[in-house]
Amino acid sequence: MHKNRFDSVFFQRLYDALLPFAAVLAAFLIGAVLLLLQGVNPLEAYRELFIGAFGNKNGLSDTLVKAIPLMLVGLGIAIAFRGGVINIGAEGQIIVGSLLTTFLVVQMGENLPAFWGIVIGMIGGAFMGGVWGAIPGFLKARLGVNEILSTIMMNQIAIQIGFYLLRGPMIDPAELAAGTNIPHSARLARLYDLPRFTDLAQSLGLTKSAEELGLSGFTAELYGVLVEPSRLHSGLLLAILAAILVYILLWRTTIGYRIRSVGLNPHASRYAGMMVERTMVLSMTLSGMFAGLAGAVEILGLHHRMFEPTAVSAGYGFSGIVAALFGKLHPLGIIPSSILFGGLLVGGDKMQRAMQIPQVLITAILGLVVLFVVSTDYFVRKRANRRVSADTSTAHTEDDAQLNVEVQA
Amino acid sequence: MNNGDLTTLTIVVGILHSGIRLATPYLYAAIGEMFSQRSGVLNLGVDGIMLMGAFFGFFTVFKTGSLLLGVLAAALIGGLMGLILCVVSITYQAEQGISGIGLFMFGLGASSLLFKTMLGTVEGIQGFSELNFCLTDSFCLAEVPVIGDIFFHHSLMTYGAFALVPLAWWVLNKTTWGLKVRSVGQNPEAADSLGVNVIQVRYTAVTLGGVLAGIAGASLSISLLGIFQENLTNGMGFIAVALVYFGSWKPLGVLAGALLFSTVNALQLWVQVLNLNIPSDVAVMLPYLLTIIALALPFRRALQPAMLTKPFTRGEN
Question: Whole domain around residue B280: which residue ranges?
């Protein structure tokens, strides 16, 4: 009998792990209905989408480029959610982060070594994003302001600040001289461009082409992504490193333990002597920092100048939520999840070009993924509850039980 | 009265008139959201519902020419979107801060998709026109100076929005259903023990909120603007959610908030029109800043429905 229960726990966990995939599948099914209503063959459209995103080196490198901001934003979202606060303000945090990064790096001209220029730019972006996250965090902790609403308002404020700065103080002098007045900043000195993968490959001496190495098929495409010239930049390595660091922060440090504890049960945490309010502000600040860093990396690695704020944030504040949820709010889950949703964004673009299906279909599908993922959580919680109530009678969720064990230890 | 005063008067009248006009979509959406929140459910997807309502309302009028059908279509799709949120947030007890964002993204994507494939370009329609309150053949209220300019140059949709406020107050405070809504938001266990079907009451409240959000979208596309375009609402639905907090979950409070907010918005538009020496970006920012400040006012917190965002499971505790 004992062995039976063990087996069923294994299968339950397997179901839990597969549920998000079922959620994505369901979202795609509804998307297919929408496509059928428009008289489009959904199978053809989806084929175009996946081949466009993952089928060749161009698609793959674009997918990875988009995965970078998703990963960084998703990590921030996960920290906030784990800490029991909801950050819908990543859009604004990306914008203010990229603004300060641009400002700092434009100011330094070419006077600093590349490394320090990039580091200062990134610190600036993360700092500003952190400030933009700390404000709603503070308002929640001190004045009880709902952080969902305040972060949404902060997004709009960031957009307007961005337009104001780009039309005035930060505008590209060349635009003023030409009289076109397009609201964008000057280009940052090339010195401070994040190295691209192709540059890294060359400095490592990887100059041979895939044919010369005798690669073919998907491995050849993958090799091409890493070595041949593309927009893929080293921000990807930074984002993966960040994911590992967030994992360590959340599960291997006291601060992370405090954040998760407050997120799971603020009352018990307060009773245990933790400063709940301060921890909430910290979670929001860290969350904003990662979104701000995403903005910095987008500027340094991809755009090399600041332009229309909403085009820089590009909805990553929302798609990052999807990536974080699908990655089960786990830093290491967010890595593959960001690549998947980066692919969806790229594929949507390719689908639009090949079949004239508006890319906004992807926004609708992302929304459905969110709805399905948060709905299926119900079953995970229910099973966890049943499991836990068999083990310990006091805990309410699996995580609670784990915490209980940790507290007792 | 010198010329300068006359201009000032015109401007003030203009601002007040636009303020009342712009309050229309906020009132429909925020009153609907108030019912939802009073029952204990935070619906953050209002903006997505408004977009769907705006599109379906517009498209129906564009195809049939019937304004009534347009409003009905918007109400219907709004109710359906509300039902989706009910299933996710009430039945499946999803985290309400996120489920609404999902609904918003779906509404944003789906309305843009439908707009692009079914219309393609921005089209205009003849929407609701101004009512003329003529008491006799020669005397019309709209012609009364100042008062007429401010209050009697609006469409049926705008008057409907203002009529909704006392109606909502009556429903919430004087009907059995209103009492049930308040009780399931405040103490669902007690309500349940007295035989109130908590889940059912929440479903109806949130669906009603969806219907009104759909109409709010339509009021924008077929009354105020007469057009539909991608992301027409531009975050109005989120403001509507904030207005419910601002208005302390009461119809009159929501009215005050909506009027204040829309007047600041009108002020902001006039700042741009008059070319005042304030950057337009800063002016556009004002309403959002105001919302954050208003949310921070401390005395409102105690009035929040006790079980807002808390799912209900029978037999717990």
Answer: 15-117+146-303
